[in-house]
Amino acid sequence: MSLLPATRRALLHRLATAQAQGRTPSLAAAVVRDGETVWTGSRSMLGDGHAPDAGTQYRIGSITKTFVAVLVMRLRDEGLIDLADPLDTHLKGTQAGSATIHQLLTHTAGLGAEPRGPWWERTPGSLRPDIAALYDESAQTVLEPGRRHHYSNPGFAYLGALVEQVRGAAWGDVLTDEVLEPLGMTRTTLLPEAPHAGGFAVHPWADVMLPEPLTDTGAMGPAGQLWSTTGDLARFAAFLAEGADGVLGADTLEEMRTPAAPPAFGSWDAGQGLGVQLSRTPDGRIIAGHSGSMPGFLASLHLSVEEGLASVVLTNVTSGMTTTAVANDLIRLVAEHEPRFPDPWRPLDADAVDPALLDLTGPWYWGANPFALHLKADRRLQLTPLGAAGRASRFRPEADGTWTGLDGYYTGETLRVRRGADGEVTHLDLATFVLTRKPYDPKAPVPGGSDGWTPAS
Question: What number of other Cβ atoms are within 10 A of residue 450's Cβ?
């Protein structure tokens, strides 16, 4: 699969504009469509012939947190932890023992944003050798736990230590064995491996540069230590959208991409999943992924799952440009130049269609509100409103003959088919709401009763 020449030129033009206006030594990017890398590009201050390629490492900063979250969710899926567990259920001796794993993943534990001591991103990890004392006592908790989102780097240091405690191995080794090697990400490492970019700061008022130190942050590593490439991160983006056997399934990744923490006041176009940042672009596109920054480096990895698109942007400058805006624009340009074709309609396999389920399809009413129930593949059902308002949801079949809501108001709720003594369907019971074949059907057990419809006097 390849992009059209006009699309490729538009992408390269956006990259060139970002490198020039952002005054960054170099900029590398990739676009993924339906799990396949369809474009890579780069620009360098040294001009043509000296630009980085898809194998050049950059520091990716807080994108590291999404990798750590994948490790934590693997522990959850294996039944070794529960997201509702307090941290000290599995990891003793921290300053955040009462915080739940869910709160740490979603930055809702109320922890301070940064650890004690000098700027951790620019100083050796040996200054903070003990995970048990990342905070001064006065700065451990800055907000009431569980109430709102407040970004915390030490929170992910704790999650990395949790992985180490449960697995009995260093978090970086666990990451390599359980995620990087299975996904073929051979150029993602804790420390830089050639070829890699050097990190620089650019003077805000003059075109001069200052090298940034390439530090090993030690215990704070799970918050932002990793180095990677556009090639490797393109593979990781495809995984985050689709899942991979032996790493994490698609359902768990969808859970990670689901809003799990309220946004800060006034930031209604941004949210937080489980180790994944969420946003809504001005044109309404839902983006999942993560940004990253460390001294000398900026990075973004963004997904539009609905459109099957992802982008990666890496640069080696401390500040002066926004990789988030560039990553969003790369997705937008592909979506506008080459909109995705919908999958062709195909009928359900006739041998797999249960006549009893087929009989359930069609109009249903909650009170006077009309809905339609649709039969989908794999015995799944979909409820859609037919009137001006109503709650839509998809439902997954269960072994006991019920269905479980997958989205919207009815997420996790149970849909049951109710029958009378003669075996005929009388109504649908959806989280106690009674849906009938006629509006307020007097033959169905409508709560409060129904005498039928009478003309207004």
Answer: 17
The length of the chain is: 457
| Lookup result for tokens 């609905």 | 306
Residue 389 tokens, joined:
């308002």
Side-chain-side CA neighbours of 5 within 13 Å: the count stands at 0
Q: State the residue for tokens 């990677």.
A: 228
Tens digits of residue pLDDT in 131-187: 888 888 766 788 889 888 999 999 999 999 999 999 999 999 999 999 999 999 999
Burial class (CB in 10 A: 0-12, 13-18, 19+), 73: buried
Residue 63 dihedral angles phi and psi, to the nearest 5°? -60, -25
Helix, strand, coil proportions of the chain in percent (round to 5)? Answer: 30, 25, 45
The residue whose two tokens read 């993560």 is 290
Answering whether pTM is above 0.85, one says yes
- What phi and psi values does residue 108 have, to the nearest 5 degrees? -120, 15
**Helix/strand/coil for 36:** strand
Residues 42, 53: contact at Cβ < 8 Å?
Answer: yes
Whole-number pLDDT of residue 266: 60
In 146-249, which residue ranges form alpha helices assigned H by DSSP? 153-167, 171-175, 230-242
| Contact between residue 165 and residue 91 where contact means Cβ atoms under 8 Å apart | yes
Rounded-to-10 torsion of CA 330, 270, 240, 173: 110
Give the side-chain half-sphere CA count within 13 A for 357. 20
> Between the CA of residue 423 and those of 149, 297, 402, what are the distances in Å?
50, 66, 16
Closest by Cα among 263, 286, 289 to 275? 289
pLDDT digits (tens, 9 = 90+) for 318-332: 998 899 999 999 999
